[in-house]
Design goal:
The chain is mostly beta strands. It has two domains: 138 residues, no CATH class; 53 residues, no CATH class. Helices cover 4% and strands 34% of the residues. The strands form four sheets. The protein has a six-stranded antiparallel β-sheet, with no helix packed on it. The longest helix has 4 residues. The chain is globular, with a radius of gyration of 18 Å.
């Protein structure tokens, strides 16, 4: 199970100590586990507004359909109302990559809103333990630090090559400081070659 924490932008601080958000069990998203602590140095503080996680549609062993749940949180981190399910988890069989789709309108934000987000991966089958984390990312959808264009609408054929135009939009470095490059994902590829991280050096 993957766990995403989303919070709106708040003024930067020099040093902020936070608790990582409480995790949600895939079979019972309201069952919380012990949060762990982390410290960030220069990014933004903020109370999580939402948690975005994947789970089996209808409960464990019911449908074999994996869906994305958007759960609004109260200021204390507890669930506020029922989660919203609008999309299936975008992932291939035996893949280590997954795309969680969410509408900005469901978050109550626009593309110009600066978001804080952290991503947590849990072993949902054997132990329930947290296995990986990417924390305190800052990103503005309308102002990425780097953007790519000239990608063919039909995609790129296997073993083919294409040149991408990479630009640095004005204001993107300040609005999306956590972005270091581009993540290329290859659908229906060998599970060992599904993605490629391209670090951009201006």
């Amino acid at each position: 199970m993957r766990f995403h924490r989303l919070s709106r932008h708040s003024p930067p601080t020099q040093r902020n100590e936070h608790r990582a958000p409480k995790s949600f069990d895939a079979g019972n998203p309201h069952r919380e586990t012990q949060p762990r602590r982390y410290t960030n140095g220069k990014l933004h503080a903020g109370v999580p507004d939402f948690v975005l996680y994947n789970t089996e549609n209808g409960g464990f062993g019911v449908s074999r359909q994996n869906v994305v749940v958007l759960q609004k949180l109260n200021p204390d981190g507890s669930p506020s109302g029922s989660g919203v399910i609008k999309f299936y988890t975008d992932a291939d069989l035996n893949s280590s990559n997954a795309i969680f789709t969410v509408l900005l309108a469901d978050l109550g934000v626009t593309a110009d809103t600066t978001l804080n987000l952290s991503v947590y991966a849990f072993d949902n089958y054997f132990t329930g333990n947290l296995t990986d984390a990417i924390e305190a990312m800052v990103y503005t959808p309308s102002k990425p630090r780097f953007a790519a264009s000239d990608l063919p609408d039909a995609g790129i054929a296997p073993h083919a090559k294409v040149k991408l135009k990479v630009t640095a939009p004005a204001g993107g470095a300040a609005a999306s400081p956590s972005q270091t490059g581009l993540l290329l994902q290859y659908r229906d590829s060998d599970v060992r070659n599904e993605s490629q991280a391209v670090v951009v050096k201006p």
